[in-house]
Structure formats: C-alpha cells, structure tokens
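Note to self: user wants both folds in one dump. Writing first protein now.
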Amino acid sequence: MAALVGSGDDDSDRAVTAGPAVDRVIPNPGDEVLQQQRVGVVLDARYRLSSMVILPSGNATEGVDVTSEVEHMEGLNRFEFAPGAGRLIEALSPDTNCVIARFVLIARPEESDTVRWCFEVA
C-alpha cells in the first residue's frame, strides 16, 4: 500500500510511497496554498476512497470528516473536497493543515490503508 508524510516541519516535505495505491495528493506535501484550495487524492484504478478527514493543524488529533462532500472524478479516480460557503469546511485554517485519506482495494474491501500529508495555508 502507500503512505505519504508531511508534518509541516522544514525537512518534512518529502513524499514516501510504499506501493501503487496513491498516484498523487492535492496539494503536494509542504505546498503553500490559499484557504479555498481543493484537497484530494488520485488513486490507482484498483482502489477507492473510503474516508477523508481534514485536520486544522499539524498537531490536531481530531479533524472534520468531509467524505460526504468529496467529489469523485471517475475516469481519473480523483477524489476532491472543495471548501466553500455552506460546506463542512468553508475555508481551510491558516497555517498547517493535514489530510488523512483512507482507501480500500476494490477487490478486497476488507483491506484498507491510509495516506496522510500536510501543507501550509496562507
């Protein structure tokens, strides 16, 4: 499976992949983005997203589960959440934000893994 890590520290903008499930995360670990930035993950076609939680800081232990508002672009197997008025998160919190996405192998849904990454919000 795969894991990406970014804690917001200066030397933690590295992405470590341990398998084929995650093609890309949005935004990239360590990126500096605006409060309305879309947040998401692109998975290999054999996987599907089961949950996405956005944490308002790098040290937060609880976040906002935005799974119900995630858009799926099927041909790309891209899963994205867009902050906005009337949504679970109207704007990303300033400073460090982290995302935890859980995904499953479609052929074996009892097997799940997670990817976590962090980025900065201006």
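First done. Writing the second protein, which came from a different request thread.
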Amino acid sequence: MPIQKRVEILGAVSGEEDIFIMAGINSQEVVKRFHRGRVIILHEIECPIDKGDALEALNPERPFAPPIHLRTEIPSSRASWKRAARNQQEQIMELLERGLLQSPGFAVFSFSPIPLAIHFGYTYTDRINISLFHYHRNRGTWAWPKNQETTSKPIKFSVTVHDLAENKHEAVIRISLSARISLKETNPLTSGAQMEIDLFIDDPDAFWLQEPEQLKELSACFLRALKNIRKQMPECRSIHLFYSGPTAGAVKIGQVINSRMNPPVLLYQYYRRLSPRYKHVLILD
C-alpha cells in the first residue's frame, strides 16, 4: 500500500508520518517488515503510557501504524463501569472497521483497572493476533527480558465442589498471582456457589510475570477451569471471576472467554477500603 494511502487510512497525526518511511530497503524487506509489524495500542485508562517506551519495547520491529491511544473515564459507579466498557468496545470496533484488522497484529500496552482489561481482551477475542506487553516496575520498562533465564513459579489448580441444599448453579474462579485472594473477601459475594476453582502460585508477588510464555500458561489453566465448569456443571448459570495479577494476564484470560460456550462471567473490582473489598462491576455475556 502506498505511504500516502496508509497515512490517510490509519490516521497518522502531524509529526508521526515518518513512522511509515522505510527508506533504503527493497520491496521484499518492506513485505517482511509488514508481516512482523504491529499496531501499537496504548490502553491508558489509569495513567498515560509513554509512546517512546512502547516503541523501545517493540524494538527491533517497527510499528505498522501510529500508536492508538484507547482511553475511557475512570469508573466509580456501576453505571460508569458499564459506560466505560461500552465506550471501550466502540473504540475497538472502530479500529477494526477502519481496516486495521488487515494488519499483521496488535501490540498492547495496558494500564487499566482489571475488569476493563478483561473486557478489552474479551472484545478482541483470541481470533485476533495480539502481542501483550507488561510494565516491569522493578526495571522501569515494558520490554521483556532478553537472554535471561527465569525460573517462574508454576500455576497450581484446585477444585472444590460443594453439596448444597440450595444450589444456585453458580461457580467461582479465583486467580491469585500478585496476591492471594482471601476467601473471607469473596465468600459473602458467592454464597450458594456449587464449584470453586483456584488458580494460584506459591507465595504470590507482583513480579511473577517475567516472560510471555507465562501468559500462555495462564491462558491454558484458565481454559481448563472453564472446561471443568462446563463438564461438571452443565447447568451453570454464572461464573464469579476474581483476579489478582498483572494487567497483561487479565487481557489474556479475557481473550479466551467465549460467551457462546460459557455462562455469563461476573467481573469484580478490588477496593481496599470497602468491606467486602470486591465489588461486582461488569458482566460478560
């Protein structure tokens, strides 16, 4: 596609046109770069994300288009959560309708409340190629470590089935990666749930995520949890999902939630000063 046409379709803003320039290379190299390129999505709801930091993390590849800034209000009430999710979905669909679906894929950098991060992945689905990046606070960078051996803690899987006199046909999934989710915080919200599934690591901490392969492990474990619910609770009407972990992981599990195969998924936001500390804010159905 000619440079000018790409600028018009993808909407380069003034000062970013150079992102399309690939001077001094032949057409075959341009094609190779296209297939390795990414459209950068800056999912910046909680705070802005520096474009330069994202480009540095993407290096040595070049972006396929100018970075896309995806923003909504910071939700505070049930109505504002629904409004933010709706606004987010509209922005994503607009990107796809503008022809960006024809791009090789997306590079996603997210500073977002967990429910909106899960909703972000749910809206994109796993049918669209997404490369996820995680902000490593201890190193001050979005770049994944290179040539570094990591010994990640494996994700463990625990299932508890209750024999209840009053069965509400509900299930619970708790994912504890950054911190262990307390049962005393979730039980008041899920009384009557027949099945509880815990995905967790020993001694959870905020620096668990060090390489993209861990996101694949998380996705596989979450799919296993959903499969268990479908198999053992075919009449399940809803799933309560509690998540304590990196934002990139929240996007990843959102991608594999299929509303045609699974019951509605209730999403909760953590508020330290509330009691209980989790509050139902969104539903994926």
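Dump finished. Worth passing along: The CA atoms of residues 120 and 205 lie 24 Å apart.
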